[in-house]
Amino acid sequence: MEEKSWIVNIAGLDFDMTVCMMVLLTCALIFGFVMYCSRNLQLKPTGKQNVLEAIIDFVRNILSSNLPSKEVNNFHLLGFTMFLFILVSNMLGLITKIGIHNSLGEEISYWKSPTADPLVTLTLATMVILLTNYFGVRKFGLKGYFNNSFAQPAKFLMPVKIMEEFTNVLTLGLRLYGNIYAGEVLLTLISSKLAPSFGAASFIAGIPLEMIWIGFSIFIGGIQAYVFVTLSTVYLSHKVESEH
Q1: Angle between helices 69-95 and 118-150 (to 10 degrees)
Q2: Per the UniProt record, which residue ranges are transmembrane (predicted)?
Q3: Rounded to whole angstroms, how far apart are CA atoms 123 and 82?
Q4: pLDDT at residue 209 in the model
Q5: Where are the alpha helices (DSSP H) in 38-68?
Q6: CA angle 126, 129, 131 (to 5 degrees)
């Protein structure tokens, strides 16, 4: 049966309430995690503070590898927030699955990874590209930004560089969506099709198979969060670093 999201029509516009709820849940989880780990900070960190500082250092290393050293502090918080949001979003769909069948026999999904929806990933990618251009204008001014971003190293490459802005949105967003969506689809097939297909034997065999795929999906989810932040900082470096 086809699985659909919970759609609500407001003033003639359709809103995917499943995605909206999962995005809000992701934000709430991140806020709670950071607030819990950052309470009672100490000069000699232990336990939960170590976890938070490890993530901060990890993201800082990503930025340091792609941005000029003087720019790292300016964009560290952006990279940290983006990494945590994508990481948690990638993991949510692995926790459980909530679906209810309506009168038409359609399964309405009330729980999934926000990043398993192309609108979410493409919106994130669009925000990244817009922010990189904004930071470029803020640093060099409109004329300097345009010359640095599109007229270097040769003006005849300008159409190609302008086209890259659009292709970067597609590649950044669809890469994340494709990996997370494919993982959730396979988990659904294992749990709803393979496991019950041959009775108890297939159910028992399906449990370790699903656990293995969940572990692999966790790994892929972490890698995709890393790749998204890395590519975002690469695009950002092209805008805030002078081309020579």
Answers
A1: 160
A2: 15-36, 77-99, 119-137, 185-205, 211-236
A3: 13
A4: 73
A5: 48-66
A6: 105
Q: List 4's β-bridge partners, or say none.
A: 108
- Domain segments of the chain: what residues? 3-240
Per-residue pLDDT reduced to its tens digit, 7-45: 888 878 788 888 899 999 999 999 999 999 988 877 777
- Cβ atoms of residues 14 and 8 within 8 Å: yes
**CB count in 10 Å sphere of residue 54:** 11
In this prediction the pTM is 0.86
The two tokens of residue 47 are 């336990």
Helix (H, G, I), strand (E, B) or coil at 34: helix
Q: How confident is the model at residue 178 (pLDDT cuts 50, 70, 90)?
A: very high
Joined together, the tokens standing for residue 242 give 């002078």
Which helix (H) or strand (E) segment is 230 a member of? helix 200-240
Q: Assign residue 11 a region (left: φ > 0; alpha: ψ between -120 and 50; beta: otherwise).
A: left
- Pairwise CA distance, residues 11 & 120, whole Å: 22
Q: Identify which of 62, 241, 24, 214 has the alpha carbon closest to the alpha carbon of residue 145.
A: 241
Which are the contacts of 132, defined by CB distance < 8 A and separation ≥ 6?
232, 235, 236, 238, 239, 240
